């Protein structure tokens, strides 16, 4: 037989049906034949692809995505990419089956994808148990009317992924990946994992994922570590895409189109995606979206109860996030230009639009504040002296009538040197009379303020930490350490909502 070709077009190989991908052309000298090598995600689950830089890992992943797209329609297959290597998986987004390809500098989206897959895994466990099925294939056979797609994630650059998340939340996201690799196969959730160097995590998952493909490695010792006999790899010619199966048989992996160059493959995937989209029609594959930098206030729902405010979107599920002042006073802390005043405005507008007759009072020690122009206040006090007088009137009215009211304090650090006994009373006893404080303050100034009203409000451990320093600012609201910051600078209004020690990344609405 002729030697294996160095460039093998995917279309030259027979395309299987179902959740099966064509991995290449296998050379079987003992049987004097060359045959297609295929991988069943339903039967074999996930696949590990080992190879050094330039060995053809990314090219193979693109081919696997294209092969699966040819085998199944978009309503039966959803593809996702985690590209922590060369960003070579981006062209897969041209396929109608692809929800998102997430780059290594988008850690928030990567975490959201893992969270989404984990939630889907739990949902599928329940569905399978209801009909007594042990796998997705059995479930689909028993429930012919249901369509649950196979989910395949192409993870390129596993060591870089591990480096990015091993010190985040005590490695919780790496544990989530390990769990999905171990439990995903019967649920129809599988991974193709590209690995360019060994590591402790790689060693652990090899006991879980048995199928592997070994392309050219950096040293001969690496082959023996992966169980390839020396007689197989010694002196072997391994152009890009050439490698071995776990059984030591030589294989040439395919390329999309006729050219192994990245630009040519991107063009071929774009053409294939156009053809499949025309053939399959519109199909909505869930995307993995980023928490937006701007959330319009008009897009949020109205509160469902008094003292409740809808303030923005949660990073966890991109759903509206609510705070309940019935739980206590609320502090909005952040450095200059972090969006404190905007957050106070959003919270106040939402409180004003809710049910009930909650009166809003503004204490603004500085002469200039955009909050004074809002048409929602029952009273407005500008300047430190006026703030003291207004606090006295609000406290007096509450003692007599006990009407529900919220006192909003902007730029609270400007009241640090003032003696305000009525504001102290509101913070300490106001809840018994229907009063709540919402305080906007500069973070570092708040750490130096020992006013009774500020200290009492902080003890409620409820508020927003905008653009925080993760090593220090969490202690302001009783959180020993915030999650490490990743990515670039945060937009105004981005921060952590803190409630009784629990933190949640949010984007506060504006406009």
Helicity, as a percent range: 25-40%
Portion in strands:
15-25%
Task: Identify the overall geometry.
Answer: elongated
* Order of strands in the sheet with most strands: 2-1-10-9-8-3-7-6-4-5
Structural class, please? alpha/beta
Q: What is the CA-atom radius of gyration, in angstroms?
A: 29 Å
Low-confidence stretches: none
Mean pLDDT: 92
Largest sheet: 10 strands, mixed
What separation lies between the terminal Cα atoms?
70 Å
Number of helices: 14
The count of β-strands is 20
What does this structure look like?
- Helices cover about 30% and strands about 25% of the residues.
- By secondary structure, the protein is an alpha/beta fold.
- Strands 2-1-10-9-8-3-7-6-4-5 form a ten-stranded mixed beta sheet. A ten-stranded mixed beta sheet has the order 12-11-20-19-18-13-17-16-14-15.
- Strand 1 and strand 2 form a beta hairpin.
- Helix 1 (about 55-70) packs parallel to helix 9 (about 260-280), helix 2 crosses helix 3 and helix 11 crosses helix 12 (about 420-430).
Quick recap of the structure?
The chain is an alpha/beta fold and 511 residues long.
SSE topology:
Blueprint: E1 20-28, E2 33-40, E3 47-50, H1 57-71, E4 77-83, E5 98-103, H2 107-131, H3 136-142, E6 150-156, H4 158-165, H5 172-183, E7 189-195, H6 200-206, E8 212-215, H7 220-225, H8 230-233, E9 242-245, E10 250-252, H9 262-280, E11 308-314, E12 320-324, E13 330-334, H10 340-353, E14 359-364, E15 379-382, H11 384-401, E16 405-409, H12 421-429, E17 435-442, H13 443-447, H14 452-459, E18 462-466, E19 494-499, E20 502-508
Parallel strand pairs: 3-7, 3-8, 4-5, 4-6, 6-7, 13-17, 13-18, 14-15, 14-16, 16-17
Antiparallel strand pairs: 1-2, 1-10, 8-9, 9-10, 11-12, 11-20, 18-19, 19-20
Helix pairs in contact: 1-9, 2-3, 2-5, 11-12, 12-14
